[in-house]
């Protein structure tokens, strides 16, 4: 069964120097506001996910909660595979068992861009950069053989989603 995956980078987070552990960094007020505006715009575009899955890090989890509060999905799950340096191969194994059709994955750079490149080109080339609160859309026609066989259909920096 084909799957659409939206790779979403967390919003603007607090300065790493202000936190002993990187995992604890929350969204800034500006990051929260920007992410809320983007979530509202996605709602206006009638985008709907079957599930939002997020990294366990605070900033990503807060971003995912904002998307959930905007009614973009009925449920939110936490996946250790979406943490920085998470296992792409283990995530692929998990996706093959899902009956979901449209997934939002909230995570971190450079992982999300590298995952997109692997899915589309079969290798990470460093050609895609995902801005904070930006989004990449990937069509995976065959989840059992996605690497190099998927299509990029959406690459949007946040500025294109926020209406002034």
Please describe what this structure looks like.
This protein is an alpha/beta fold and 164 residues long. The chain has a single domain (3-160), classed as 3-Layer(aba) Sandwich (Rossmann fold), CATH 3.40.50. The chain is 29% helix and 20% strand. The chain contains four helices and six strands. Strands 3-2-4-1-5-6 form a six-stranded mixed β-sheet, with helices on both faces. Helix 1 (29-44) runs parallel beside helix 2 (58-69). The model has no long low-confidence stretch (mean pLDDT 94).
SSE inventory with pairings:
Layout: E1 3-9, H1 29-44, E2 51-54, H2 58-69, E3 76-78, H3 88-95, E4 102-107, H4 111-121, E5 135-140, E6 151-156
Parallel strand pairs: 1-4, 2-3, 2-4
Antiparallel strand pairs: 1-5, 5-6
- Enumerate the spans where pLDDT stays under 50 for 5 or more consecutive residues: none
Number of strands: 6
The radius of gyration over CA amounts to 15 Å
Class in CATH?
Alpha Beta
CATH superfamily: Phosphoglycerate mutase-like
Quaternary state, please? Answer: single chain
The CATH architecture assignment turns out to be: 3-Layer(aba) Sandwich
Q: Percent range for helical residues?
A: 25-40%
Q: Helix count?
A: 4
Query: Which term fits the overall shape?
Result: globular
Measured by DSSP, the beta-strand proportion falls in 15-25%
Strand/helix succession: EHEHEHEHEE
Largest sheet: 6 strands, mixed
Overall mean pLDDT score? 94
Strand order of the largest sheet: 3-2-4-1-5-6
Looking at the structure, the CATH topology is: Rossmann fold
What is the terminal-to-terminal distance?
38 Å
């Amino acid at each position: 069964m084909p799957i659409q995956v939206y790779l979403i980078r967390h919003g603007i987070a607090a300065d790493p120097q202000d936190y002993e552990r990187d995992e604890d960094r929350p969204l800034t007020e500006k990051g929260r506001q920007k992410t809320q505006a983007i979530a509202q715009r996605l709602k206006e575009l009638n985008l709907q996910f079957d599930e939002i899955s997020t990294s366990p890090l605070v900033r990503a989890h807060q971003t995912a909660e904002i998307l959930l509060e905007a009614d973009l999905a009925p449920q939110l799950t936490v996946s250790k595979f979406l943490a920085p340096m998470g296992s792409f191969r283990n995530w692929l194994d998990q996706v093959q068992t899902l009956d979901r059709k449209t997934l939002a994955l909230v995570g971190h750079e450079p992982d999300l861009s590298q995952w997109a490149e692997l899915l589309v080109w079969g290798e990470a080339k460093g050609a895609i950069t995902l801005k904070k609160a930006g989004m990449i859309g990937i069509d995976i026609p065959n989840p059992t053989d996605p690497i190099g066989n998927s299509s990029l259909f959406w690459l949007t920096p946040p500025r294109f989603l926020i209406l002034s």
